[in-house]
Design a protein that fits this description.
By secondary structure, the chain is an all-alpha fold. It contains twelve helices and no strands. The longest helix is centred in the middle third of the chain and has 26 residues. The chain is elongated and about 125 Å long. About 0% of the residues have low confidence.
């Protein structure tokens, strides 16, 4: 039902009315199997956003999205602009013309003419950017993104014209954009601990980790998830990881076991997830239980009143005639 209602021009590549078909980009079965959980999580995140319906985007969020496209365009082509100076200036002029509206287009008003031209030139790029970031924007926010792209890509074309002319002075325009991470509230929104554990295990097996070890470390993550009583990856913090370890320590589990098994497994899985965009930080990093040390039952050395008794008992030993004297001295009765 969701796919049927989604306009064709706003569907991600490989999405159809009745099904989703996504290429994993490899013929290697092991590599494909390793990619499956990550692709599946991405699809589920987008479907979740579609189920929740379009939402308004904050002004800063729109600026961040436009900045992502600007950087991909202006920075990505900086080393080799491809077009000539005149070529990039013509791109900039085409963008400006779209903002004015095509005068040859049949429409009821200039506003409608402008909207149609802007949609044709920047609409697809806006939709592709939203899909890539897993966002479903309402119509007003989407149009604001189109307006931002028309302005920023025009400046990007002018910047590439300067590069094509050999001018590589610092790009001051790019400083206007917020960080790319601010395009969406959380890198791990909508993802679960169990999905991460499954993806990590699949990836570990593909890397050659022994099945027994991969299974054991995955089990640690699942025990942690059970202790949390929820499966929301975005709610995992350093404090919750430390609290889990503290509780296990209070239950009598050795600090070495917690540090070298429980925390180590979480640190490895979360680190793997952070490198692949599942989460923005590693909440297990730096978590540690301070060891209590061995229980002391007596002094390390013999007490003064113990020494005569021990030596006396050793000297009182009588060996047999056939026994070597050295053996007798080494084996007191």
């Amino acid at each position: 039902m969701i796919l049927q209602k989604l306009p064709k021009e706003r569907r991600p590549r490989g999405w159809y009315k009745t099904h989703i078909s996504i290429s994993l980009g490899t013929a290697d079965r092991v590599a494909a199997k390793a990619k499956c959980p990550e692709v599946s999580a991405s699809v589920e995140r987008q479907l979740k956003a579609l189920r929740e319906g379009p939402k308004p985007l904050a002004a800063k969020q729109i600026a961040s999205l436009s900045g992502i496209v600007y950087r991909a365009f202006a920075d990505g082509l900086e080393n080799n602009p491809g077009l000539t100076v005149d070529g990039w200036l013509r791109v900039a002029e085409a963008n400006e013309a779209a903002k004015r509206g095509n005068p040859l287009l049949i429409a009821q008003s200039n506003a409608e003419r402008r909207a149609t031209t802007m949609e044709q030139r920047f609409g697809g790029l806006a939709d592709a950017t939203l899909v890539r970031e897993g966002l479903v924007a309402d119509d007003e926010s989407r149009w604001k993104l189109i307006e931002a792209l028309s302005r920023d890509l025009t400046e990007g074309a002018k910047k590439l014209a300067r590069n094509a002319d050999g001018d590589y002075s610092p790009d001051t325009y790019v400083t206007r954009f917020p960080l790319p991470t601010e395009a969406k509230p959380s890198a791990q929104a909508g993802r679960s601990l169990t999905a991460l554990a499954d993806a990590w295990q699949t990836g570990a097996l593909a890397r050659g980790v022994r099945p027994r070890d991969a299974k054991r470390w995955k089990a640690v993550v699942l025990r942690f998830q059970k202790w949390l009583t929820h499966d929301d990856l975005s709610r995992v913090t350093p404090a919750t990881v430390q609290s889990w370890g503290d509780e296990k320590s209070a239950a009598g589990i050795k600090a070495k076991t917690i540090n070298d098994t429980d925390f180590a497994a979480l640190r490895a899985v979360f680190g793997w997830g952070m490198e692949r965009g599942w989460m923005s930080t590693n909440p297990a990093l730096g978590r540690r239980i301070v060891g209590r040390g061995k229980k002391i039952t007596r002094e390390k050395f013999f007490l003064p009143d113990e020494i005569p008794s021990i030596l006396g008992a050793a000297l009182a030993v009588q060996g047999t005639k056939r026994e070597n004297p050295k053996t007798t001295a080494a084996n007191p009765q």
